[in-house]
Amino acid sequence: MLPDPRAGSAPEPGPDAAATPVLSVVIPVRNEAPNIAPLVAEIEAALAAIPHEIVYVDDGSTDATPEALRAARAAGAPLRALRHQASCGQSAAIVTGVKAARGRWIATLDGDGQNDPADIPRLLARAEAEAQEGRRTLIAGHRVNRKDSGVKRYTSRIANGVRAWLLRDATPDTGCGLKVFPRDLFLDLPKFDHMHRYLPALVLRQGGAVVSEPVNHRPRTRGASNYGTLDRLLVGIFDLIGVAWLQRRGRRPVIERDEGP
């Protein structure tokens, strides 16, 4: 199970808090103060035509991230901020953000600026088209031209290959932080540490669908990564075993309506 995030503050409403957003952009961050203002500006430009909110979850930052979030909100962004008193990990931050979100649709972004918010409207349109066909679908970004270090690309290639072989989740890039999905679909999933790396497999287990879409990827230009490569490798084998176990143990009942009195 995920640790108790013990959020240190309630969601802080932005200027348009009374309006219900269509889309909530959930961004987990830890020590990303220099990236807050540029990313918020990009999100606002990309989503100008879509009623939205931005939900940041500060996962126990020790830098000026809280101040940067307050400044972005004061500048007029429809931004809400929650804070974990201590770092509980990226999955815990995403869960906190989705639970607090008010939109029917969720878009997740990494807080380092490497995901391009300009891709969100296209992924949202695909998700809405899937819903029109009666499917609850996770739209997963696929970084076809990654701008990470050689070590990250190499380890991700191995991890993606092993994961795809074991879990058969039909997703080439589960590590991409840019995803769009229905909020209620996410809330139906089992919650555990590192779950965000296995969302496609968990969605398929829940009876949903997964579609991959190519997205832009950019080099990090500010700050340093706070969720490293080595820690992912060390826990990866245990995560894979656990998710494979969940896949094999889960059953989805077929509900028959009782038409009687």
From TrEMBL:
Ranges of residues in domain Glycosyltransferase 2-like: 24-131
Keyword Lipid biosynthesis (UniProt): no
A Pfam family matched in the record: Glycos_transf_2
Keywords from the UniProt entry: Cell membrane, Glycosyltransferase, Lipopolysaccharide biosynthesis, Membrane, Transferase, Transmembrane, Transmembrane helix
Name the UniProt record assigns to this protein: Glycosyltransferase family 2 protein
